[in-house]
Design a protein that fits this description.
Layout lengths: L1 H8 L3 E2 L4 E5 L2 E5 L2 E2 L17 E3 L3 H14 L2 E10 L2 E9 L4 H26 L3
Antiparallel strand pairs: 1-4, 2-3, 3-5, 6-7
Length: 127
């Protein structure tokens, strides 16, 4: 909507928890937060996280929907930009991590944190 575009131009968008979804053959951006335009009037949308329809070609939507259904992938928005006055969203198909991959990452992070802590203590003159 009009005031949302003004808010986007002001940099008031957050795609952190957003994802894409295909509903009834149409693509929607879900959970993207676009703050209400602060100089707007009664036409400001009331819900900043409302679903927003994305315009894609029917063939693109079918291809994305097939990948999501068969391969268990997710539609993730990467960035938001403007081209010739129109707001565009770059989306990607992403595969989520498996549980064992998450555990490996957490263990690796903990090990690196422990190493940094040890190095810091040695620099201070501990040990």
């Amino acid at each position: 909507m009009g005031t949302e575009v003004k808010s986007l131009r002001a940099g008031k968008a957050n795609l952190r928890d957003a994802y894409g979804e295909v509903r009834n053959g149409e693509m929607y951006l879900i959970n993207a937060h676009i703050a209400p335009y602060e100089y707007g009037n009664r036409f400001n949308p009331t819900d900043p996280r409302r679903p927003r329809k994305l315009l894609l070609h029917r063939i693109e939507i079918r291809r994305i929907q097939a990948a999501v259904q068969q391969k268990g992938m997710t539609i993730v928005p990467l960035r938001l930009y403007f081209t010739r006055g129109k707001a565009k969203i770059e989306i990607a198909l992403a595969r989520g991590k498996k549980q064992y991959d998450r555990r490996e990452d957490i263990a690796q992070r903990d090990a690196e944190r422990e190493i940094r802590r040890t190095v810091r203590e040695q620099e201070k003159g501990g040990y």
